[in-house]
Amino acid sequence: MTEPTYEMMIIDPERYERVDLPLFRTELDDFLPDTVYDFHVHVNLAQYCPEPSEEAKRTNWPSAIPRHFPAEHMMDIQRKLFPERKTRSLAFASPSPDNNLMALNSYLSRAAAQSPEMEVLYVARPYEAPESVAEKLKQGGFLGLKPYMGLASHIADVNDVRIDDYFPPAHQQLAHELGLIVMLHIPGLERLRDPNTHADLRRIRDTYPNMKLCIAHIGRAYTVSYGKPGLEALQDVDGLYYDFSANLNEDVIELALRMVGPDRLLYGSDLPILLMRGVREYDGDRYINFTDADYPWNTNRKPAEMEANYTFYVYEQLLSFKRAALKVGLSAEQVARVMHGNADGLVASVSL
What we know:
By secondary structure, the protein is α/β, with parallel strands linked by helices. Helix content is 41%, strand content 13%.
């Protein structure tokens, strides 16, 4: 096993002053409210996260991100990204099956107890007894669960995984009984447009209505070809929340605003991944990332003068949200709901 690295995603001060802060002041300062709640952040310690293989870094672009992102660094980054604003974060460990998830859960619990700027979710493995999970939630101050399809180790092919395989009914019942927040990563190659997923989500909402179920990344619908059929199929399912973490597609965010509405859409960043600098392009079902960093996957480059002016993916995401909000005609109050109000309400509703 490769020794873990303690390198972190950091913000270059020169480039921040030259590129990022001017963009923020010009494009985002007047648009964003005075409070920002990031509903989707990963916090990790490298000693609990084995370094991915070089093959993984070439083929799975988030794997190239440094594994060390402690809570205090995450909070410093949030303050830097959103100057003169109050920031809060809903954090959880990166749910890789290779990580020491129990150690990471414990670390997150301790970090949240020391800071009013973050709340935490528990990364639950599907085989954990619900009684044990309930005890850990109460002892650790967790507001809910982060199940993940990659933890369904009993399914040979991850593309065959269904929601119940990694978020079992016993955990669904627990989330219903305790009124927990659940951050759900949609499985399968078809992502949000998969009819099996539609059926599963309808059943879960009907059976466990007290669960606060949030669909991460707008269901991994990073292109309209996934987002339009998926959102159309689910737009009548009440009570489903969506975050647009790591989703830079203005058209998909616009679809979500129109079909889900600003009362059930939440801002999330997927930090530290979106501290990458670059742009994203689209081709049918594919999204194509461009960045200026020498990651193993980054072989398709733009001209150097263009790369020199790349800002953070997270700012590109917020610019896409701004354009979508203007198209839909969101009020400042509705923008504030997406950026923090909906999250505030969900967090306040959990009492363990």
